[in-house]
TrEMBL record:
Coiled coil: none annotated. The chain crosses the membrane at residues 12-34, 46-70, 91-112, 149-165, 172-191, 211-232, 239-260, 272-291, 312-330, 342-367. This is Acyltransferase. The lineage of its organism: Bacteria, Pseudomonadati, Bacteroidota, Flavobacteriia, Flavobacteriales. InterPro entries: Acyl_transf_3_dom (IPR002656), Acyltransferase_3 (IPR050879).
Length: 381
C-alpha cells in the first residue's frame, strides 16, 4: 500500500505534531482505563495530556486547512463552486470514518443493552455539542463537531466578503480569522460572567472545553499561523528558533502559574474559562515555524508517518470502541499491577490493529477516490 503522498511530499515535522498529539491522547486514555477512580496528582496530570493532544490537532488542522484556503484566494478560486469543492474534499476526509464509527457505537450500545442518548439524530448533523455539553455517548466526537463547523464558518464568511468586495485577498482571510477568534473568546467571557449558580458536579471540560461556540478559535489560531507562514515566509523561517522558544516558555509559564495558584478548572476559574485555551493554542502555533520546516529523519520517518496516517482512525476507535468495551468485561480494581499492564498492552494492540484495518480498507480507498482523476473530472463538470 502506498501512502497518500510520498515521503518526500509529506512535511515530517507536521507528521511529528500529529503523531505526538495522538500519543498524548492515548496516554491520557490509558490512565482512564487503568486508574478510573484515581485522584493522584500524577494520574490527573497525565489525563490532562489529552487536552493538549486535541489542541495540537486543532491548531495543526487550522494550519493545514488555512493554507489550502489561502491558495484558493491567491489563485482566485473563490466562487461558491470552488468552496463547495473544498468542502467535498474535507467531508470525504472526515465524514465516512465518522459515520461508520458512529454506527458501530450505536450497535455496541444495543449489544450491551445500554441506553441510547436522547436526540441521537443530532450526532448525524454534528449538533450534539453546538452550544451545550454533549451526552456521554461517542464522547470523542466533540472535537470533530468543532472541526466541521470551523471548516464551514470561515469559508462562508469569505464568500460573504467576496460578494461585497468582489475579490478576496490576504486581508480578507486575516479579518475572518480574527473575527472568529474574537467571537469564541467573547462567548467564553459571557460564559464566565453569566453563570452565577454552578450546576452540581460542574465539569469545565464538558460545559466549556468541548462546546463548539467556545472552541472555534483553537483552529483559527492555526489559520493565523498559515497566514504568516505563507505571506511572511522569510520572517517565518528566520525567527523559527526564537518563536519555538517563546512558544515553549509560554506553555511552561502557563502551567507553572496554574500549579503555583493551585487552579482547578472545575472550580470555575476565570483563568480556565477565558484565557487558558487561547494561551495553549498560541503557544502551540508559535512552535509551527520550527515544526513546519523540520526535515525528515530516516530512522523515525516510517513509524512517525504511519502513526500520523492512522491518527484519525486511532482517535475514533481507541476510546468508545476499545476502552469502554474492555471496561465492560474487565474489573480493573481486581487486577494486580502485572494484570493491569497486560490490559494496557491489549488496549494498545487492539487500538492499533483496528485502526490499521479501518485506515487500510475504508479510509484510504475513499481518499484515493477523492484524489483520483475521475473525481476531479466529475467535479469540474
Amino acid at each position: 500500500m502506498e501512502t497518500l503522498t510520498t515521503y518526500r511530499q509529506r512535511i515530517f515535522g507536521l507528521d511529528v505534531v500529529r503523531a505526538l498529539a495522538i500519543i498524548l491522547i492515548l496516554c491520557s486514555h490509558s490512565t482512564l482505563l487503568l486508574f478510573p477512580e484515581s485522584q493522584s496528582n500524577i494520574v490527573k496530570t497525565i489525563q490532562f495530556f489529552g487536552t493538549i493532544g486535541v489542541d495540537l490537532f486543532f491548531v495543526l488542522s487550522g494550519f493545514l486547512i488555512g493554507t489550502i484556503l489561502i491558495k484558493h484566494i491567491e489563485n482566485n478560486k473563490t466562487s461558491f463552486k470552488d468552496f463547495a469543492n473544498f468542502w467535498m474534499r474535507r467531508w470525504l476526509r472526515t465524514l465516512p470514518n465518522y459515520y461508520l464509527v458512529l454506527l458501530i457505537n450505536i450497535g455496541l450500545i444495543l449489544l450491551f443493552n445500554a441506553e441510547l442518548p436522547n436526540q441521537l439524530f443530532k450526532y448525524f448533523f454534528f449538533l450534539q455539542n453546538l452550544s451545550q455539553k454533549q451526552p456521554d455517548f461517542f464522547t470523542e466526537s466533540w472535537s470533530l463537531t468543532i472541526e466541521e463547523f470551523a471548516y464551514i464558518v470561515g469559508p462562508v464568511l469569505l464568500i460573504i466578503l467576496g460578494i461585497f468586495f468582489k475579490r478576496l485577498n490576504k486581508w480578507s482571510f486575516l479579518v475572518v480569522s480574527l473575527l472568529i477568534i474574537a467571537s469564541a473568546i467573547y462567548h467564553r467571557f459571557l460564559f464566565d460572567f453569566n453563570v452565577t449558580v454552578l450546576p452540581e458536579n460542574f465539569s469545565w471540560s464538558k460545559s466549556l472545553r468541548k462546546v463548539v461556540v467556545f472552541r472555534l478559535d483553537s483552529i483559527y489560531y492555526g489559520f493565523l499561523g498559515a497566514f504568516f507562514g505563507f505571506y511572511y515566509t522569510n520572517l517565518w523561517l528566520r525567527f523559527r528558533f526564537v518563536s519555538f522558544i517563546i512558544g515553549v516558555i509560554l506553555f511552561v509559564v502557563t502551567h507553572v502559574y496554574i500549579l503555583i495558584n493551585k487552579l482547578n478548572p472545575d472550580s470555575f476559574s476565570t483563568f480556565f474559562n477565558v484565557y487558558y485555551l487561547s494561551l495553549i493554542a498560541i503557544s502551540i502555533v508559535l512552535t509551527f515555524p520550527m515544526f513546519s520546516n523540520w526535515k525528515s529523519n530516516k530512522v523515525l520517518l516510517k513509524p512517525i508517518t504511519n502513526i500520523s496516517l492512522w491518527s484519525y482512525s486511532i482517535y475514533l476507535i481507541n476510546y468508545s470502541i476499545v476502552l469502554l468495551s474492555l471496561q465492560r468485561y474487565i474489573q480493573m480494581s481486581e487486577l494486580s499491577l502485572i494484570g493491569k499492564f497486560g490490559v494496557l498492552l491489549l488496549y494498545l494492540a487492539l487500538t492499533f490493529v483496528l485502526s490499521y484495518l479501518l485506515f487500510t480498507f475504508f479510509e484510504y480507498p475513499i481518499l484515493k477516490l477523492r484524489d483520483s482523476k475521475r473525481y476531479k473530472r466529475w467535479f469540474k463538470n
